[in-house]
Every structure is written in structure tokens, then in C-alpha cells.
Amino acid sequence: MLALTQSIVAEHHITCLMVTHNMTQALSLGNRTLMMADGGIVLDVAGAERAGMTVEDLVERFRAGTGRTLDNDRMLLSE
Known about the structure:
This protein has five helices and two strands; from the N terminus they run H-H-E-E-H-H-H. By secondary structure, it is an alpha+beta fold.
């Protein structure tokens, strides 16, 4: 399904919003990443700042923005 979505976005030059708990996908697809907690945005990164980010960076930035650690294995261990 992701390949089809990427193909349509590239062919028609359209914006696509993807919602995922898979942080690896969040960093490998698109050009902007938002993280939310309790209904609010706690992280919004794009461009050069986002380019070199790792899942570990996202986890740390989430902790810095919320004061909480991520404890959901599905988010941390997804590939």
C-alpha cells in the first residue's frame, strides 16, 4: 500500500498525510515529521534538521518535549 501511495503522490505532485506509530516509516517517508501527545504537537521537524534523525533522536525529542518516555514496544521496535 505504501508503494502505491508513493507512486500516486509522485505522479500527481500532491500532498499526502500519513499517520503511523512506526517511527522508522515516519522518518523514511515524506519530508516532515510531527509527533503528538495528549492531542498536541510536541515535535515538528523538517528539512536539514530532520534529514539525519534516527528513531533514537525521535525518542529523545519526545522525552524532552513531554517529560515522558515512550514505552510502547510497537512504536519502538517497528521496522
